[in-house]
Predict the structure.
Amino acid sequence: MSPAGRIALAAVVDDANSSVRARSRAALRDALPALRLRFESDWLEPLQAGEPRWTALLRRTECAFDIAVSLRETVWPARVRVAVASIEATRDAAGEAAERAHIKAARLLDEDRDAGWFRIGLRGRGAADCAMAEACARLHGVLTSEWTAARSAAVRTYRALGRQAAVARQLGITQQAVSQKLHGARFQDLLATEEALRTWLREAGRSGLWAIGATGRASGSLIASLGAAE
């Protein structure tokens, strides 16, 4: 994307309970240094705490869902809604272009709360295309909404350490228990959904939907699973 084009990400903790919102925002603030470091190469402007929205500018679209998943897992079991939006390159000054991208992302969060927790408004992608991607993200949200605290801890620790034996040592449980918790969390289905969305976001200018991801699972089957999950 040229310097005048911008990709904005916006996130908001979405819970009616004010104490839950406060705890979730505190958890995000605590996690902010690690999030900035993990996605260091992806930020054009790193994630910033705001009220009510957290905002960032991205260098590329493909990291947007990975960032959203990290935010969602940080505040679990509270809810977070995330939007990614891009604008065409124009003659606007960089600051004006950034502001327009932030406004577009904020509108996606505000316009339809029933559309799902991950909203998409990308140049080069039609409404139907984005709606299918948002449906895939909803599947991911359905799966994580069914977690227990133990499953959440297993998934987050596995993402950080990458080996079940290391997770078992960290959590003080057996490796078999780790495997069971990851299975109960539908971790492989989550990874397949993440890969499908990562690929789709990477190919933001490409027409059509859903190549088979590196996991070998057709994303169409994930969308078909959405109805059963809901």
Q: What stands out?
A: The radius of gyration is 18 Å.
